Write a sequence for this structure.
């Protein structure tokens, strides 16, 4: 049985999955916030409401005096409904509820919510990563577009184009098949200094 | 069944309300947070206005008993029950049951000026000399603190009927007045150590007399599949439980392992607390975590069969996970996990229901 997750830092950010946790751990290191911010995986959006209740009850959360709590989830098809579902869960567990994405609301703890990719558009973490790749001069980019264009001619078009593009790109690497979090920070993937990550970094820095 | 419990001014608890309880309640928390004190508080409440239980509750922690032979330590022992030793406010232990009825025990410890009390003492002693069966006789030669000390218990049952008892202590005399006791459900308090005392041997003997040994043997097979029978035999002059596991000779139960002793004593305690309460300190002692799920199934079944409630402390995360697994399959609403926390020099309680435990386990979120 692995050691249970313990809250050890006064700022925590909840993300939806193990691979997302790896990505955001690396992003925190990149912006030198790893000593302040702890990333926790809430296990998927269907678990989020229950997770908040259990997190709030955990002894380390209660003793740590957490002063800021951030939540990051994918917009998927609708940013508004994704934000609303996070707010509903926060309210149900007695947390403060922000009016808008990326807005910090005072409370115990202060709360802020970021809806990927940019608090405006549909999409997800992969959307951001693909945007960062697309702005680079990687030679595989035309191949990725060509592959997706080819798929369009068939009936098997993936429902999320950016995710499909990114995973196609991942499959093009020397070590194919890495997950997003695993690939993050490695040479030849996406640059965390890309401007597409700026709003996300600002969110973490202002927690 | 107890549904909630309020504790005021008792040991580490300044003012706390814990709810809701289930049939089986596992209590966890760091060292010295008040887990054992919570068991003691329930036990005291369930004893009503019983002076002997109040005066001797510290005996559960190995402190020498001070009743029925009062000594200098009786006041000190009693004072130690109060939060921060402060007896200016009474201890209040208030139960609400599942019919929303309340029952309370208040414990007072007061000191009066000796100059004022000389006359009172003689009157009190006269009034309170036992005339019938009582728990104590007045004794002399007490060299307690100066002045008159009074320990007073006021118990009010679900119908608000009051039951009182008191002990009055001066430097030279003490007098007890044990009032009529209320009719209360049976309650057993089990310590953390694994010792099968004569009392348990007697319980087994009485079960054997009426053909109820399967209630004990079947759960014990979780730990020792070969067990066929337990017998009460004399070792020297001491009656002891021996197990038959198909060898040439019977084996003293303690030699079959600490887990066997622990589970035997738990099951025997349950058989003696029909419709009552069993309080167990450090329930997992002696039990390997791999057996805990089946042990909890057996405890749950025994608790249901005897329609009683269990409160047990634990330090073991494996024990909690095992209980959760055992109850999830059978009676998910029959388990609560209560964690006591020290928050800002006070004690607070978090009660986990089945869903919260499940989430904490599945997301590997720390609970202890």
């Amino acid at each position: 049985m692995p050691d249970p997750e313990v809250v050890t830092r006064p700022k925590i950010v909840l993300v939806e999955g193990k691979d997302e946790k790896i990505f955001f751990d690396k992003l925190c290191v990149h912006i030198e916030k790893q000593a302040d911010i702890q990333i926790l995986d809430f296990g998927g959006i269907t678990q989020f409401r229950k997770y908040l209740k259990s997190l709030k009850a955990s002894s380390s959360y209660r003793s740590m005096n957490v002063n800021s709590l951030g939540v990051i989830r994918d917009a998927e098809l609708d940013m508004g409904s994704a934000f609303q579902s996070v707010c509903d869960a926060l309210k149900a567990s007695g947390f403060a509820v922000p009016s808008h994405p990326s807005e910090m609301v005072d409370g115990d703890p202060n709360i802020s919510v970021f809806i990927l990719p940019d608090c405006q558009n549909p999409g997800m973490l992969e959307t951001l990563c693909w945007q960062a790749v697309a702005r680079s001069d990687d030679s595989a980019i035309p191949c990725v577009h060509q592959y997706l264009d080819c798929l369009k001619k068939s009936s098997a078009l993936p429902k999320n184009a950016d995710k499909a593009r990114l995973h196609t790109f991942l499959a093009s690497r020397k070590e194919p098949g890495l997950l997003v979090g695993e690939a993050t920070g490695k040479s030849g993937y996406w640059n965390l200094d890309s401007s597409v990550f700026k709003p996300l970094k600002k969110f973490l820095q202002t927690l | 069944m107890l549904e909630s419990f309020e504790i005021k001014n008792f040991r580490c608890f300044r003012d706390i309300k814990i709810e809701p309880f289930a049939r089986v309640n596992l209590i966890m928390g760091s060292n010295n947070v008040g887990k054992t004190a919570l068991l003691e508080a329930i036990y005291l409440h369930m004893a009503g206005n019983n002076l002997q239980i109040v005066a001797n509750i510290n005996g559960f922690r190995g402190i020498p008993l001070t009743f029925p032979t009062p000594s200098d330590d009786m006041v000190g022992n009693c004072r130690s029950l109060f939060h921060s030793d402060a007896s200016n406010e009474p201890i209040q232990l208030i139960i609400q049951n599942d019919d929303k009825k309340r029952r309370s025990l208040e414990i007072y410890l007061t000191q009066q000026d000796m100059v004022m009390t000389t006359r009172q003492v003689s009157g009190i002693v006269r009034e309170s000399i036992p005339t019938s069966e009582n728990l104590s006789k007045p004794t002399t030669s007490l060299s307690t603190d100066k002045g008159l000390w009074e320990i007073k218990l006021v118990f009010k049952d679900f119908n608000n009927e009051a039951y009182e008892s008191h002990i009055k202590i001066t430097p030279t005399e003490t007098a007890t007045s044990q009032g009529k006791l209320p009719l209360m459900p049976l309650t057993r308090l089990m310590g953390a150590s694994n010792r099968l005392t004569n009392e348990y041997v007697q319980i087994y003997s009485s079960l054997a007399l009426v053909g109820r040994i399967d209630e004990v043997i079947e759960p014990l097979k979780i730990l020792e599949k070969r067990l066929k029978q337990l017998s009460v035999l004399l070792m020297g002059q001491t009656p002891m439980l021996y197990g038959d596991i198909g060898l040439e000779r019977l084996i003293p139960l303690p030699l079959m392992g600490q887990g066997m002793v622990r589970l035997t004593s738990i099951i025997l305690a349950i058989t003696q607390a029909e419709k009552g309460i069993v309080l167990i300190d450090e329930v997992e002692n002696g039990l390997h975590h791999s057996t805990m799920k089946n042990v909890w199934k057996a405890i749950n079944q025994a608790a249901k069969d005897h329609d009683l409630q269990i409160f047990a402390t634990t330090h073991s995360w494996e024990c909690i996970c095992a209980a959760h697994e055992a109850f999830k399959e059978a009676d998910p609403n029959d388990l609560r996990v209560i964690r006591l926390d020290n928050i800002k020099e006070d004690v607070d309680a978090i009660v986990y229901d089945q869903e919260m435990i499940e989430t904490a386990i599945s997301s590997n979120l720390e609970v202890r």
Observations:
- The radius of gyration of chain A is 18 Å.
- The mean pLDDT of chain A is 94.
- The longest helix of chain A spans residues 79-92.
- Chain A is about 45% helix and 10% strand.
